[in-house]
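[User]
Um, C-alpha cells okay?
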Amino acid sequence: MAIVNDFRLTLGGSEYVPIMVGGMGVDISTSDLALEASRLGGIGHISDAMSTFLSDRIFSTKYTKAKSERHRASRDTFDKSKVKFCLEDLWKGQVQFVRDTMSRKTGNGGIFINVMEKLTMAAPGDTLRTRLRAAMEGGIDGITLSAGLHTGTMKLMADHARFREVLIGIIVSSARALKIFLRGASRVDRLPDYVVVEGPLAGGHLGFGEDWREYKLSLIVADVLQFLKKESLDIPVIPAGGIFTGTDAVEYLEQGASAVQVATRFTVTKECGLPNKAKQAYFNATEDMVYVSTLSPTGYPIRLLNNSPCIDSNIKPQCEPLGYILGKDGTCQYLTAYENTPVDEKGKKLPVKDKVCLCYHFSKHKCYTCGHYVYRLKDTTNQLPDGSYQLLTAEHVFNDYLYSKDHQIALPEMEIPMAAG
C-alpha cells in the first residue's frame, strides 16, 4: 500500500515532500509552523492577512496606532471614504515579516505566502501591488494567490526583478476559474507554477455559493487535470479541503495530483498561532457545530463553529485602526449592517445579526473558522486528566500524513502533567 512519502513534488527544479500547509490568517499559520513544514521538506505558508497589524504584534511597530491617529476624524461617522493605508508602512511591515521568517529557514522545503485579493484595504490595486512586491523583496520562495480570480495580479508584479524567479500559484475551485486566471497571466507571458484546487470542505472562506454541498473535490480535481492535459499544460495540481489522513492524500496523488494542501489538523499544534482557548474549542467541536454562513463581509461564504465569540457581536466598526476589508469607496458590508442595526431602550446597539467585523474578530482570534472535519480533531490526540486535549507538534502531524496507512491516525506519546508546587 502506497504512503505519501512514496511521492515527491517538483517545483521550479526543486523537489519537495508533497505536503503543503495552507496559509491561515491572522497569524494562525505562524512563521514557526511554516518553518517546521520547510524543515521537514514540505512547503509551509505564512499569510499576509493584516500584515501591518501582525508586524505590530511581532515586532512592536506602531503602524496600526499611526493609521488610527491619521483617520481619527472619521471614527464617529459612517463615511470611511478617506480611510487609507500608508503604503510605505504596508511595505515595511510586509518586508520585515517575510525577511524575518526567511532568515530562520532551515531544511530543503519552501516558505510561501498566501496573498488574498479580497483584502482590498480601501485601495485594491495599490495595496495588493505593495504586498506582492514586498513579499518578493523579502525573499519569499513562493506566492499563492487566493480569495479572488486575480485577473490582473500578475501584471502588478511583472516588473519586479524576482517575478520570473519566485514560484507563483493560484487557488481555484473550478477549471473555469483557472481558465479565467490563465487568460490574465498570458498577458505577461507567465504561467502559474502550481494550482491549488480547493474543494467545498475547506476551512475559512469558500469559493462556492450556497450550493457548495453539490460539489466534490475529487471531481473538481479530475476536471482541472483533464483541462490541463487538453491544453498541454504541465502545471502541478494540489488538492485542498477535507484531506484529513495520509490515505486521503494518497488517493489524490494516485489520481494524478502532485501534492496536497492541508491545514485543519495543524490548527491544534503548538506552533499554530491560535490561543489555547480556540484550540480546545476545535477539539471539543461536534459535527453539528460546524456550519457555512454568510457572516463574512467579503461576500464569500465562510465555514466556522457556531460557538465563535464573533457571532452576534455588536463591536463598533474598526475601520480607522484596521479597515482591511474596506472597498475603494470606503464601504464594507459590516459597516452597513452595523449602521442599520437598531439600539435598545438605553441607546446600546443590539447584536448585529447579518455580518461580523472580520478585521476585529480575526485580530482577536474570536472567529473560529475551520475545515469541515474539525470535529474529528479530538480523535488525533489524547485527552488529559483535566478534560482538555493534548496539543500536538507540527512534526507529529506532518509525519502522520507522510507515513500513515488505512486512514489510521497515530496518537502522540501521552504527556505527563507537571506536578503542582
Notes: Residues 4-281+386-403 form a domain with the TIM Barrel fold (CATH 3.20.20.70). The longest strand covers residues 110-116. The CA atoms of residues 287 and 375 lie 5 Å apart.
